[in-house]
Amino acid sequence: MARIAIDAMGGDYAPKTIVEGALWAAQEYGIGLELVGRKEDIEAEISRIKSIGYVLSDCGTKGRKRRIKIDVDKIDYTITHCSEVIGMGEAVGQSIRRKKDSSIVCAVQAVADGRCEAVVSAGSTGAAMAASLFGLGRISGITRPAIAVTLPRTEKPVVIIDGGANSDCTSGMLTQFAQMGVAYAKLSLGIENPKVGILSIGEEEGKGNELVKETYPLLKQMHEENLIDFVGNVEGKEVFKDKADVIVTDGFSGNIVLKVTEGSSSLLLNMIKSEFKSGFIGAIIGLLAKPFLRRILKRVNWEFFGGMLLLGVRGISVIAHGRSSAYAMKNAVGAAVKVLNKDINSKIAEKIK
Amino acid sequence: MARIAIDAMGGDYAPKTIVEGALWAAQEYGIGLELVGRKEDIEAEISRIKSIGYVLSDCGTKGRKRRIKIDVDKIDYTITHCSEVIGMGEAVGQSIRRKKDSSIVCAVQAVADGRCEAVVSAGSTGAAMAASLFGLGRISGITRPAIAVTLPRTEKPVVIIDGGANSDCTSGMLTQFAQMGVAYAKLSLGIENPKVGILSIGEEEGKGNELVKETYPLLKQMHEENLIDFVGNVEGKEVFKDKADVIVTDGFSGNIVLKVTEGSSSLLLNMIKSEFKSGFIGAIIGLLAKPFLRRILKRVNWEFFGGMLLLGVRGISVIAHGRSSAYAMKNAVGAAVKVLNKDINSKIAEKIK
Fold it and tell me: What domains does chain A contain, in order, with CATH numbers?
């Protein structure tokens, strides 16, 4: 049975939603857990769930909670106590080095020591990245690890890489992101021949910033060598069309894409809600329309994909959203489960050589 | 009476929607027009509108068209013939220099010569920018002109600067964008003391890419000198919250914000439409919900703001969306009208000194 290390202390609602989501995932995917953090806090949380027998969580639709039965006795879990937690605002490099007994460092160590196959954390993204990089090491040949993020679309989802690990990038890094993104899209999303694009402003070759102009010919050459299927520049509005399956970009722009998508979608949904509240008839129609809008909300919700995979490190490391609910955490663990036993790292290593 | 030069040949549906929108704007805002382009094409379009007496256009809601009565005889317009057009795919620098008789170059010239107070073009953004820069010149002290874009939000709109004029920027350029953006938000949107933020990935000082890290202390210093009200980093999802009124960024990231907002909103609205089409009851509820969704569509539609202002050139130059409908074009002219007689350029020049 595969075992996943959980940073039980990371996340805005930790350890509550983290432990809930992890137990839910263990039950749903049939995996074992190593819960890492303050022992008494984790135990208290587990006792609570055990005594009531369920977890209460929305399932991708805010405001409507469901009871998910959890049979704690059937779940194979261990608790690894550690005393420290790295907070969201802390300087990453320092805290990783100083707080050797922090939940994220210890959770990564469980993978490094071979007790677990993957680690999942909803704590500080920077800390999770740094802990994974120091604890697991880079895949040989990889310049910098990158975050692969999956965004929902009408048909197939799209992978954005880098989603925020590297604010400033070189063209060489971007060509590696392309290779890693392709491996991820194939193994995790089952896309046979992923089309690779580069995020830019303008469709034609030669449009974009210096980084894009430098990277474009390199990706084109990789295309000619049949290493990737490169489709050229992808504009911001084309991200959500079927032009590319993997979109390569620096971590700054990639993160902007994710966060703007989150922000504009939630603005739009809030506008719809308030529009329906603007009168009696509106309220009734809004009530009728609710189940439909809820289905949409579920489809576009980031919680559905739960976690972003850190690619390029020697192990599986999933970074979950800081605001993860139990549902989001369950799906983040699911994102790790999807690539378990698929040897994604050796497949990346092969490509990079 | 103020007079506005219109590049009648620029835009995907030119000259039809361009002439329609310009006449509509002339009537609505009481301005005169100089329509620049192929004389026979423009005249044919005007005759058509004159004979039917109206313009048929959606008004920010796709698919539902309204008739807008246009009394052509009451509109003060002239036509300036020129023979050439610069296409969307053409290399900008070359075409501006070679095609001296192109509609965008001649329309800018009408402002440079003092016949018009502003120029509006829905043609190639690059060509409109280059023509404006060469034809009007830079405001003294400004390193690079930038595009100010207004995005709708629940309460006040937000100004993003640069929206795509400069793919690669320096920190010095960004501090000027802040000054220009503040002048624009005050004069065009009537925001008294605009809060200025810098687009970044992470809220705290010290987070972001190299450009952000370099620019942050400069903006902070301007804040301490009471030149601007600087609120710090603005993450992608905070763009749509009330954190900042003016968001400073390089043209690459700025354009990504705009296009991703456009793309993700239209994905969401399409999902809603298809969800309502998924069954008989859904179709009925969808029909009832339509007027509500239409109001939303109108509020979030880029066509409502129609045009982006090119700031930093000595004159008023508005760049409209390539896919401008008559409604979008009318609003783009409206964006120019909003800053007429407000002496925005000398106000920018004062700040920069």
Answer: 1-142+312-348 (3.40.718.10), 144-302 (3.40.718.10)
